[in-house]
Amino acid sequence: MANKIQVVTNRFRRIDPHQQRQRLYGIFFLLIAIFIWIAFSRSTAPDLQTIFVTTPGGAQIATPDITFNTFFVLNVLVVLCAALGVYQVLKGFGKYSNYVLSLVGILLVVSFLAWGAAGGSINVGGLLRVMILRSVPITLGAMAGILCERVGIINIAIEGMMVTGALVGAIFGSLYGLWMGMLIATIAGGLISTIHAILSIKYKIDQIISGTIVNIFTIGLTSYIVTKILQNRDWQHLNQCGFFNPINLPILSKIPYIGPIFFSHNIYVYVMYLLIIILTFVLFYTKWGLRLRACGEHPKAADTLGINVFKTRYTGVILGGLLAGFAGSFFSLGSVGYFEQLMTAGRGFISLAAMIFGRWTPIGALGSGLLFGFAESLANNLSLLRFPIPAEFLIMLPYILTMVILAGVVGRSRGPAAAGTPYEKESL
Amino acid sequence: MAKKETTVKRNILSIFIEELSKSSLVFILLAIFTGLIIGGILAAGTTERVWQAFGRSFTEGIRESLKLIWLTYSSLFKGSFGDPAKMISALLSGDKTRIFSDWKNFLESLVVTTPYLFSGIAVALGFQAGIFNIGAEGQLYMGSIMAAWAGFTFKGLPPIVHVPLALGTGILAGGLWGFIPGFIKAKTGASEVINTIMMNYIAFALVQYLIANPFQDPVQGFKTPLIEQSAHLYRFFEDPLRLHIGFVIAIIIAILAWFFLYKTTWGYEFRAVGFNPHASKYSGINSPIITILALTISGAIAGLAGASEMLGVNFRQTQALSTGYGFDAIAIALLAKNHPLGIIITSMLFGFMRHGSRVMQLKTQIPIDIISILQSFIILFIAAPAIIRTIYRLKEPGKKEFKVEITSRVSGEKL
User: How far apart are CA B141 and CA B138, in angstroms?
Assistant: First the structure.
């Protein structure tokens, strides 16, 4: 009897943290609904129209624009968000909550665009196309980070590897053609990450310090090469690599609306799609992937089971470096066709944020890469909208979101347990 | 004023040498020496003249590369210190203009050293408490822009009020930039490494916004107005020489930091948390508070670095671009093993190299960036003494192993 009472009181006292989180999400959705209503809907005249242009500039097939009454659509979005919020509070979406969270985020963006372009038009197709392009280095870099951290090595040197990839890609692309440039840039990234791997695995230097060393070294070396060689008039032909032209994928690029946005890009975008699928499969559905992750979560246990922790860690870090070098070559070979200093502009660090934001999974990396890419794309086109917030704040948004996620305010994100600690085999 | 400064410095020097002789000075010197050799090889290997000489004959190639390396480092030295013979003869002659022109490089190097000294101490204070502050750069920018704001907004104040006010604003801004990641770490355990990096980019974007909008100069776009004359830091010499009182403040901060860390209870707690967070927790140290304090103070000092640059050198904020102060500060702190007095020397090493490299680039066409490469090798050898040991066949030291002690990785804390 006493036991039973204990159980009952316990049930009343203890609030299930999971349920509490669900409620919090629901309230958050409701707040967004209220925000859309107050900030956007109420300040829009009822008779205004918004035109979403769906054909990106230069696309082969034209799709009809979407024209709608701004006020009406905004109100629909408010109701939708509110409904999702009410359902979340009362019943909860359970494990789908995070997807619903991103859906609400998308609704917020749509309502913002509709409101910003009210009485005019905005090229949504173009925005999304640029978003994909901008997300390529961030997503690839985030996947490089995932590979490193899943085996337990923190890699803040992705930026350095990217810069190296961009420079090497430009030089060898100019000398031996684009494909060779891409290949050698990838290898260069791998070599640089081997330095990081040796320092942090063999010499057991603090991984942040090792990453800092690699960053200072690569950024110094690339600017050295640029000043010494590429800016020299006799050697300028080394920095004219040109870039990969977009390829329209057969059939897929013909899909209305989606095709021109997703499937008429250069090779980098398609490789990114492929890598996301491959990496997800390998990491989470193969024995090799399980072993890889084991080294990042509990290396001692992995070692007991006969996994060579050192070898696995080297593999992960070097594979990550190859990816980062490839991502770096996108800057020169995939977008502008030459190398200039500061062209990576901290994308390597943003990749780290994207990795955390995407919870150390390739699909999450894509999602956060797209988010960061969209913020950049929108910030560049902000002058097209009547928008009271300056572009700089939009640029800030992903960083703030990353900090919020990391702090666990909305959707806590936790990385591999052993990331950052060097592994030391116990001597018998 | 100038005399007073030198006496202060001599005292520090003696303390420093005493401290340094306790640690493995040989290691640091070998690390620097090896870095210089590698830099020399790189410089020679990328110079066409050397290649041509090698094409003629091997010995000529060696001779040419040695000549180039000598020229590189001697011009680096002359660029950072000046020509020693000339400097002494100028001092002896007592001619004011000659002293100014011959000591110019040395004094300018001190100007370049100032922000490194501040930010090196900022990072080291964090390290001592087990905190990795990669955000020194963002904190520096916040300090700089807010000091500029205080500098151009308030008009008609006497310098004795205006200068501390502007410096204080910068300190507050930098401190806030450190407080936020510190608070998040203490409350939720989220790693400060990523958060300080994020704060860097937020700072860049914010400065970009501020100089383009509310703080914009009405005449010239994308920069703030010049700060008022009353907010300028005191300069020791006449105009072309820019050595300002910020350098002295930096030295004082270094001494205060040393006193704080090694002579006060709070400082002891800082080091205890940095050394072993778990043990210090069980011994009753409030480690979340220490974490917040460490990052806030660290940010405040980095903010002071920005403020002193603003009020002493720049006088207006232009575009915010990463200048690498944050990473260099980490290198400086590591090189000095996070000892505040050691940082006085290591920051001078970096500042002098930075300033001297400009002269070097003019004379030898070796790009400034060789300094970064040198630096990366020097930290590498400091952080991985095993490499130096292998190169020079040094014996493994027994108890007195030289290593960089950073215990920021609390078990259970992740990036």
Answer: 5
